[in-house]
Design a protein that fits this description.
This protein is α+β, with helices and mostly antiparallel strands. The protein is built from three helices and 15 strands.
């Protein structure tokens, strides 16, 4: 009887956890749908990583933590600026496409306000060594240091997978739009799949200026690492 009771308790716990996780997923999808229908928000999907060979000499990638900042009147004020932090899974030692596991694009997205954003900072870890970039990711003259993009109201914008080139500040864009769609389908975020589209990535050296109405405008400067 003791064994049966224990099995029943384990079954109840597992069933409750299933309902809890399922409920969270539905709430997330409804939240996205509501905001998109009202055209108040946007979603950005992106990764930053470094090609790497693991302990078994297998090709994989080290995901980076990074922060994006929205360009507005307060972007130079750290206490008032609007920023979003992408955590490489809560632990800097995260390897995907390796012998551990893969981190899907469905966990590499954020709901943000429409506008122009620049990558302000990134960090990653290859085990024994931590790597950090300097901040801010924009010069006083408006030159982009790492990368930038723009999302419109209601957009689900895929920026790309951005590769760190030779541990420099150059980021090379790799497009995986079909993988993005597949990852969103697997996580049952159908509203995002219908709207997702690839958006322009503005690489290092691109410039930001304001027009006569005070709107921030990006001007692209092509270089060998901008897109691929």
């Amino acid at each position: 009887m003791m064994i049966n009771k224990m099995k029943f308790n384990l079954f109840c716990c597992a069933f409750f956890l299933f309902l809890l996780v399922g409920g969270c997923s539905r709430d997330l999808s409804n939240k996205y749908s509501k905001n998109f229908n009202a055209q108040h928000k946007s979603v950005v999907i992106m990764k930053i990583s470094e090609p790497y060979k693991n302990f078994f000499k297998k090709e994989c990638e080290l995901e980076a933590n990074f922060r994006i900042v929205r360009l507005n009147d307060n972007y130079n004020d750290k206490s008032k600026r609007e920023s979003y932090f992408f955590d490489a899974g809560g632990d800097k030692w995260m390897v995907h496409n390796s012998w551990l596991f893969e981190i899907g694009y469905d966990s590499r997205l954020a709901m943000i306000n429409p506008g122009v954003y620049y990558i302000d900072y990134l960090s990653w870890n290859d085990g024994p060594t931590n790597y950090y970039s300097s901040s801010p990711g924009i010069s006083k003259k408006g030159m982009i240091v790492y990368g930038a993009f723009e999302v419109k109201p209601g957009d689900v914008g895929y920026v790309g997978k951005l590769y760190i080139k030779d541990r420099t500040v150059y980021l090379e864009k790799i497009s995986e739009i079909e993988k993005v769609k597949n990852d969103l389908i697997k996580s049952k975020q159908t509203d995002l799949v219908k709207k997702v589209k690839e958006i322009e990535f503005y690489g290092r050296g691109s410039m930001v200026h304001r027009d006569d109405n005070g709107i921030f405008i990006l001007k692209k400067v092509e270089n060998e690492f901008t897109t691929h």
